[in-house]
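Reply to dn_fold:

You asked what the input looked like. This is it:
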Amino acid sequence: MKKIYNITSTLLILFSIVNIAVAQSYTSTVTTITSQDSTVVKKKTDIEISIGAKDGDETTKYPRAFGGITFSRIDWGFSRIMDDGAFTLSEDNQFLKYKKASNFGFDVAQFGLRASDNFKTYISAGFEWNYLRLEKNILLNENTSPISYEDGDVEYKKNVFTTTYFRMPLTFEWRSDKNRKGERVKVAFGAMTGVLLKGTQRLKSKENGKQKFKDNYSLASFQYGPFIRLGYDDFGIFAKYYVNDFFEKSPAQKNLNNLAFGISLGF
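and this is what came back:
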């Protein structure tokens, strides 16, 4: 787990360094000093360092690189567990039956290439959480493979199973020309990948109060799948489907996948 956090920190530092190198812009002014014998020309160079991509300047020459620290593509929506292509869970997977399920994520760094005013491609990094509010009074077993659980004698008022991933999407984005309001239609698609950071089960009951357990729970160490975003200005909708199995080394849960969809901000 420490290695993953170190990787995350290193990537963010690299993104910042690359951005500073890319985002430097040079403005030269010429000052002429005239004397009786000669004319001396001096050049003064100003360096402007900016954080984050600046895509709104139509005077920029293309292609150009961009990148840096960001807080964008904030996804919030619903999540659905698919069991061999169906939304109904099989008998072996009834322990995962949920009241509600949601998905939340955002990007914190990016680096890419804008080929024109209408098209760019970039890789970004961020975090993503998936929440399952379980119906059954079960306690997931820690340090076991495949995934296993115990039927609890306690009635839980809250039983939330959460997955946390460090996500790294590769995106291809097209945007229309600006309309009279200066706004655009946007379409983005690509591959969403992620590395498991942790699994968490949060419980709340009258008998035991609040409880919190952390483990990998045989969750997929690496998740991947296609995604798409459709938007106007800074708002949009998203959908993503992870083709990998939700759990690994757990034969009874084979072909159990995750689908998420909802709204996207800062897009």
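DSSP finds one helix and 14 strands in the chain.
Hope that clears it up.
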